[in-house]
Amino acid sequence: MSFKLFRRGSARCIGILSAFVTILLCLYYICIGQPNSTHIAESQTLSLHLGRGPNSPAEALSSFNGSASPVLQFQHREPEPYTVDSWGDKCYVLLQSNTNITALEEHSKFDFQPEWMRSKEYWDRGFEERYEAQKKDKQRPPLKVIVVPHSHNDPGWLKTFFNYFQSDSRQILNLLVTKMQEYKDMTFIWSEISFLQLWWDQAHPTKQRALKRLVNSGRIEITTGGWVMTDEANVHIYPMLDQLIEGHQWLKNNLNITPKVGWSIDPFGHGSTVPYLLSGSNFEGAIIQRIHYAWKQWFARQQSGDFIWIPYWLSAKNQGRLLTHNMPFDIYSIKGSCGPHPSICLNFDFRKIPGEYTEYSLKAQYITDENVEEKAQLLLEQYARTASLFPHNVALIPVGDDFRYNKEREVDQQYHNYKKLISHITANKRLYNVDIAFGTPSDYFQAIRERMGADHAFPSFKGDFFVYSDIFSEGRPAYWSGYFTTRPFYKLLSSELEHNLRAAEILFTIAYNTARQSRHEDAIKIYEKNYELIIHARRNLGLFQHHDAITGTSKAAVMRDYAMRLFESTQNMVKMQEASMELLLQSHKSHEHGFLLSEFERDSFNKLPRKMPLQLIRNPTSDEAPTSNPTSAGKDGEASFVLYNALAQKRIEIVTLRVQQPNVRVLNEQGVELKSIQINPVWNISDAYEQGLSGLPPVDTGSTSTGRIHISTRQFEVMFVAELEPLSLTTYRVQVDEFNYKRNIAIVYCDDCATKMNSDHAPGPTAPPAPDKAIQFEIRAKPAGDIQLENAKMRLLFDEKSGFLKTITRKKANSQLLQPMQCAIKFAAYRSAQFHSGAYLFKTDPEQSEAEKDVLEQYVDVRIIITSGPIASDVTVIYGPFLAHSVRIFNTRSHLDAAIYLENDIDFEPPPKNRETELFMRLLTNIDNIAPASLQRNPLNQPVESSSVPELPVFYSDQNGFQYHERIKVPAIGIEGNYFPITSGAFLQDERLRLTLLTTHAQGAASYEPGQLEVMLDRRTLYDDYRGMGEGVVDSRFTRHKFWLLVEDMPPGQQGIRPPKYKVLSLQAQQLANELRYPPNLYFLNNFEQPQPIALQTLVRLLPHGAFPCDVHLTTLRTLSDPQLQLFPSASALLVLHRQGYDCTVAAHQVDISNFCPLVRRGLGAVRFGELQLERIETTSLTGLTFQKKSQRLHTLAKINLEPMEMRTLNITFRGEL
Fold this sequence. Notes:
Blueprint: H1 2-8, H2 11-32, E1 36-39, E2 49-50, E3 73-76, E4 80-81, E5 92-93, E6 101-102, H3 103-107, H4 125-136, E7 143-152, H5 161-182, E8 188-190, H6 193-202, H7 205-216, E9 220-222, H8 237-254, E10 261-264, H9 273-280, E11 285-288, H10 293-302, E12 306-309, E13 322-326, H11 342-345, H12 359-363, H13 372-387, E14 394-402, H14 408-427, H15 429-432, E15 434-438, H16 441-452, E16 460-462, E17 469-470, E18 478-479, H17 488-517, H18 521-544, H19 556-585, E19 596-598, E20 600-601, E21 610-611, E22 638-645, E23 651-659, E24 664-667, E25 677-683, H20 687-694, H21 705-708, E26 711-724, E27 728-736, E28 747-750, E29 778-780, E30 787-790, E31 794-798, E32 805-810, E33 821-831, E34 852-853, E35 862-868, E36 872-879, E37 883-890, E38 899-906, E39 917-925, E40 954-959, E41 963-968, E42 980-982, E43 985-989, E44 993-999, E45 1003-1006, E46 1012-1020, E47 1039-1049, H22 1067-1077, E48 1081-1085, E49 1099-1101, E50 1112-1121, E51 1129-1139, E52 1174-1179, E53 1193-1194, E54 1207-1214
Parallel strand pairs: 4-5, 6-16, 7-14, 7-15, 8-9, 10-11, 11-13, 12-16, 28-29
Antiparallel strand pairs: 1-3, 2-30, 12-13, 17-18, 19-48, 20-21, 22-27, 22-48, 23-26, 24-27, 25-26, 27-49, 28-35, 30-31, 31-32, 32-33, 33-34, 33-39, 35-36, 36-37, 37-38, 38-47, 39-46, 40-41, 40-43, 42-45, 43-44, 44-47, 45-46, 50-51, 51-54, 52-53, 52-54
């Protein structure tokens, strides 16, 4: 009876049921909303200790600005599955997406030594039998062939970008616009907008119009449309998206088109970030090429080479899905792509240029009336075999190679011969039953969708295609994992420009529109004039994301050309920040310029930036009355500087500043003296530099390492804790302190360091007075035994001989020690296999009994230096000129105290030193990061005893600073196949602990043994690896590598959860990663040369309504170019937001970052940039292009809803004059 009542759906029954469900939901949310709060009272003194020495001078940090410090609270949160309405105030859990194919699972089952390897062709009897059976299948649709002429143009590789343009790319584009008007059915594709823009600016208007007609007709298709064909392993999400925006905006402004298909055929392995970005740009599909040879065979066997690539995490909005086509054969040349048999495909590359002698020019025969039938039959057999690898029987056939169609003769040869073949096949359709024509990738995706129906007919795939391996060179596996680390100096240079460009973009957008709305005519002229520098910086950064640039796989001369571009744009972006900050710091009535100066001096691209000392001005006319302006630098013994926080969250930052005397104090923006600062010694200041600074005569100190590492008496480092508001400019002051500075002087523990301390000369007339000897650093002998550093959160133990970290012991709230955790740091190197390990490839030397070598044993002069002070303590160990390694912990009463800062200075010295060396840093822990048995697949699908299951370590590597992928060791392929790219971090974990390592730049990482995590630091290989570059990697430079190391607690009962969680960083680790990549920029106030003191604001909040939510990252605020005058800025800007997913169940012991970044807001709230008034907000694609059906006008940013991991772009237009 009750069943019938409910089935009828009476009003009474529905009401009762609704009330019942409502009560249950209320009870549920009441239960999960009750926090389990515990208040932890911290001790008043947070001193740092050395194991065998007396306590270092420390003082409680009651606050950073003198006010009371909040009591930390710890809350246990139960995660919930994410829903669209969750935003900012809930602890959510990210789940893995459900797919037909999971890369991690399938990859572990592969046979990496197949029988067909020596022949280099996977096409075997099984494929042939299936092909023959398909020919007899009357239900199978007829063969359809789309022939796509193309030319792959590298913006730099063996030649520089401009030299390639001059010698090849310009001629290719000129030939296309002329020949394609003659050949009415010929098609072509173009990808690299960097070359297209250069050609467009020099082309005659008639050629520009011809290109527009060809593009609008669909005969020339612009594929991907990025500034370059980006690398997918080493590139961070910011420049990856920025170069795509730059290309798409240029195409929209000049050709009025929007690309729809991705073409990524040469990056060395493919990640899942590019498909996400292309999907967010409303692409219809993408084409990839270079994946592991075992994947090639697997996709062919499964007929799954067309698949829907979806993100690893479960998206409530089904975002990031993209139809992807894997080119089924080795390479994109005609030889490697027409079919499974390269020897036959060689017959159909018709390029024959006088003076060129190649395998195809010797073998190919032109098509004539006599041989057209024979050649057509031979070619169709290859095309049909290619199409047999797909259920839809459509074959996409690229016809081209690197810099092809650069000769008029070749254009004629390729077109006429293929035209004869196509015409013959079409004329004999009853005989062949084949539909064949010139076409584009868009034609291919349209054809397969017509035959397959909806996208759900394609299999779904999650994961990526790293590490790429080929076999076509030698018939044995060659793993392309060396380029993850090759030439780290250039990778760091790219990160530096990325940081400064992003900082300048945000400042410029706010400053320029502030000038417009306040009618600041002089500032408007300056910004409009200098906007072109931002355009060049975007393009130079984008150019370096090319898959032969940031990878380090171009010739040395080409790499230097890239570096010059990066260096020049970095200089310009620093100046742009200065000009923008000068306007924002002044009141509306002030119009001064040129009073800000970067703390860094950059001499040339091949040297690290050098910190300049802040000069405390001693005015000789000191009888003048001091000004009351707090930012004036004209007082005796005083100077000011500005810190720019480019993140949209509040941050606590350890700031270091160079000064010329140690007796100083620091005042914050309110004029309150900071309670605790630290004065550290400055090391490794060369005598020549010191003499140049002070005007002293040169002194011969010899070349001993003792002289090399002596303490400078003319520069000192001031360290303090800065609490910076979100997106803000904060002014600090440094003053001479004659009385209390001694408590801030750090103590140095070092043997043989005191010998150089008193080798001073009389100060020159322009140098600051030498400080009294009483204020020199106290240097004590290093105590015997192991070294110990300690703060309120942990105790570190270091080996007394090597100076390297051994264990970490964390503390409870009452300072009681927990169980020590092994966390030893080791530096060693792999021996490179000559001719098999180079710029691209990584392979250890098989002729050596041990793959690793002790690279430090050659340096007998080892120095250990310990520095201890009220804010930080560190251990630095120096192995000659080769390595300087520092470990530092902090005492700030913030979340930073739970993290460990690492810094490595690496100098390989000139060759032949350290030849065939692949240097790594390894962390050896007792974390049991063994993959669960369910993930350790047995290739034979046979049951095995649990005791015989190998212990395969698993770790998680980031991809492009955007997402994380699980990595499980595959023993069959060696260390070279188990190295993976990281750009911001990696972590390993077990049921108890998680160890996270965060970095500043791209490098390779691995966990080859349980409990171990290693990162490659630098490589030197004297020999070429035969992948085209033609030279080894011997141009190593001095590099500085920075890391954060974090140990966190795992929640109990997380193993075996179904559905499985998607693993990401904790909130604290994510914050540290952002802060490491985008540190605050420091600028000196240089206004002592101004005739009158400038009235400046000491705190400028560029987000006056408060910070963004904790997990929402302001990727960029990028001014758009005026569509008509493209070298001038418009009133519109692209706001790119990224809600970085995080795991709220993972946290450092006794640390709750939500006290610093509380999760209490719903959404973005009332966002405002400075005092700017908005005219409109419009939703766009990720690259800022609008679509009539999908675009939406918004009244406020509070309406935006971002799900975790989501990226979103909005077009914001600011009002004009107010």
